[in-house]
Amino acid sequence: MSAVIPEKVDLSKYIEMREGRANIRGRRLPIIMIVITQSENKFSIAELVDNFTLSEEQVLAALLYYREHQAEIDAQEVEDSRIASELRQRYGGRKPGQG
Asked: Which CATH architecture has domain 15-89?
């Protein structure tokens, strides 16, 4: 007898939205941070678990959520980078209250 693989997995036990961004439930840890860390450092699941002090289930849920919402999350990151670049160009490296 073969196992039935669900078409959609409910990740709400592990993922929550904060300020329009997907985060690990109960933590202020955006999913994109886990994805970027894995991508840039070629971390294994175990290394991500250790690095972020998460459970294996939380890490897997984050990676699955990213896979299911990649276009939306990547577009959000592009827009955030554009805004940050615009602000750096406009205000340079000055701290608030300087200049």
From this structure: Orthogonal Bundle (1.10)
Q: Which two tokens stand for residue 82?
A: 């554009």
Q: What's the distance, Cα to Cα, between the start and end of the chain in Å?
A: 71
Question: Looking at residue 27, what DSSP letter applies?
Answer: S
| pLDDT value of position 5 | 63
Q: What are the backbone angles phi and psi of residue 60, rounded to the nearest 5°?
A: -65, -40
The predicted-structure confidence for 32-61, as pLDDT tens digits, reads as follows 999 999 999 999 999 999 999 999 999 999
CA distances from 97 to 3, 79, 85, 87 (A): 62, 26, 20, 15
> How many residues in total does the chain contain?
99
pTM of this structure: 0.79
